[in-house]
Amino acid sequence: MAKSCIERKNIQGHPCFGGNHRANGRMHLAVAPRCNIRCGYCTRRHDCANESRPGVTSRLLSPLEALEKVREVMASHILGPMIKVIGIAGPGDPLANEETFSTFRLIGKEFPHLMKCMSTNGLLLPEKIRELDALGLHSLTVTLNTLDSAVGSRVYSHILYHGNRYTGKEAARILIANQLDGIRLAAGFGMKIKINTVYIPGVNEEQIPLIARRVKDLGATVMNVMPIIPQARFANITPPTPDELSAVQTANERIIGQFRHCRQCRADAVGLLGEAGIHAKGETARA
Fold first, then answer.
1. Which residues pair with 257 in a beta bridge?
2. How far apart are CA 113 and CA 80, in angstroms?
3. Which of 6, 158, 191, 250 is most enclosed, with most CB atoms within 10 A?
4. Could you tell me how far CA 51 lies from the centroid of its own chain?
């Protein structure tokens, strides 16, 4: 195994991967506006300062603006000591945006001690994984909602892949195959891997334990089952109750570790999990 892989595995402190989430914080940089898939539960068309959900940011940042924001936060006597992780989680898909890679290069050069983390839908993961390894990516989150293309056709309306637009089962088949291959490759490079699965009652609940077993075999170390936020095409769906969500997580713990502290963070979240933190002010981002 390469030396860089060993070093990454030994790094401690990520609040979403077993680190102390009450003491260790993260900073999300909203530098990735474009997305290459269309999820039925996703909308990024509005922002409220008190709202916390994936895909939301108050202001898009350029890579240089992101670097300056990190400088400001790290200079803060309150926030600076708690920030252990720099993450890019949108508001689109990080791998569909060159700004993601430029930002990680800038941050890595000036703040090499900060862990680099990224969340992705995984469509481009197999072809981008070597570049991510070269950047020293420590942690990777892949959102995987089904292993079945028929279920996937209900979750995703289309994907944009290598200049083509795919829909239905074909779109889901391509996406799922790339997600699984990307997870396998990332594990081979020694990255810490978390799987996010959106629990959509009546759509994918039977898939959740199947996903847990498959990703554990591929090298993932933790799974985060998240309740759907009713919006977009799934605006009328009833999300799982806290007890229903807890029951699924408890059952899954027999297969793979479960992350139970998720707050479905904004794309510009800063601070500790479970606290409001701060985020950029300004114009709402639109992809």
1. 222
2. 12
3. 191
4. 18
d(CA 268, CA 284): 11
Chain centroid to CA 44: 15
| In the chain, domain spans | 3-271
Using one digit for the tens of pLDDT, what is the confidence trace for 173-225?
Answer: 999 999 999 999 999 999 999 999 999 999 999 999 999 999 999 999 999 99
- Residue 228 has which token pair? 């759907």
Tokens of 204: 């994918």
Say if strands 139-143 and 115-120 run parallel, antiparallel, or are unpaired: parallel
What pTM was computed for the model? Answer: 0.81
In this structure, the dihedral spanned by the alpha carbons of residues 87, 93, 96 and 100, taken in order and rounded to 10 degrees, is -20
* Span 240-257, pLDDT tens digits: 999 999 999 999 999 999
Q: Are 232 and 41 in contact (CB under 8 A)?
A: yes
Residues in the chain: 287
Q: Which residues contact 35 (CB under 8 A, 6 or more apart)?
A: 90, 91, 92, 93, 96, 121, 287
68: CB partners within 8 A, 6+ apart: none
The residues, any chain, with a CB within 8 Å of residue 9's CB and separated by 6 or more, are 190, 192
Among 25, 122, 123, 134, residue whose Cα is nearest residue 80: 25
Residue 83 phi/psi, 5° resolution?
A: -75, 120
